[in-house]
Amino acid sequence: MRTSVPGSSAGARSGGFTLLELLVVVAIIAIASAGVSFALRDSADTQLEREAQRLAALLESARAQSRTSGRPVQWRAVAGGFRFDGLAADALPQHWLDAGTEVRGPGALQLGPEPIIGRQQVVLGSSALPGRSLRVATDGLRPFAVSAEQQ
Question: Which distant-in-sequence residues (6+ apart) come within 8 Å of 6 by Cβ?
Fold first, then answer.
């Protein structure tokens, strides 16, 4: 009694790959590519952008703490980092994530306690990127924002 379709042999296999085999290979390649991309270090430009965004968030946090406590808070750049005068020493971080980050120009900001603080900015650079700098600035009403420094 014949059980296979006419023209095919039960034990023979065609020369191509099945769809399932192709999907497994594509999944393995995707996982390996993701692992490699996560293993690569950030470029200096990305690290500078991250530092600027972090500083903007820290300045807004210090500004909010100054307004709620009613005490003036001042941000100052110091060697290897920065400090918030007027807040507890452990209230906010006081160091850069990247040791190559530096403040270019004046390094002091008044953050409150008044709701309108005046136009202020700080310019960040990196020792790894001498020609690149980012500005963290506010007009006094809006939050601190990061923009490219115009040369």
Answer: none
pTM flag (> 0.85): no
Question: Bridge partners of 84?
Answer: 75
Write out pLDDT tens, residues 121-131. Answer: 999 999 888 88
Closest CA to 134 of 33, 51, 29, 27: 51
Rounded Cα gap, residues 2 and 151, in angstroms: 83
**Count of beta carbons in the 10 Å neighbourhood of residue 103:** 20
Q: What is the pLDDT of residues 56-96, one digit of tens each?
A: 999 999 999 999 999 999 999 998 899 999 998 888 999 99
Cis peptide before 130 (omega within 30 of 0): no
Q: How far apart are CA 85 and CA 144, in angstroms?
A: 18
Q: Which one, of 34, 82, 26, lies nearest residue 54 by Cα?
A: 82
If one counts every other C-beta atom within 10 angstroms of the C-beta of residue 111, the result is 26
Contact 55, 62 (CB under 8 A): no
Question: Strands 74-78, 101-104: parallel, antiparallel or unpaired by DSSP?
Answer: unpaired
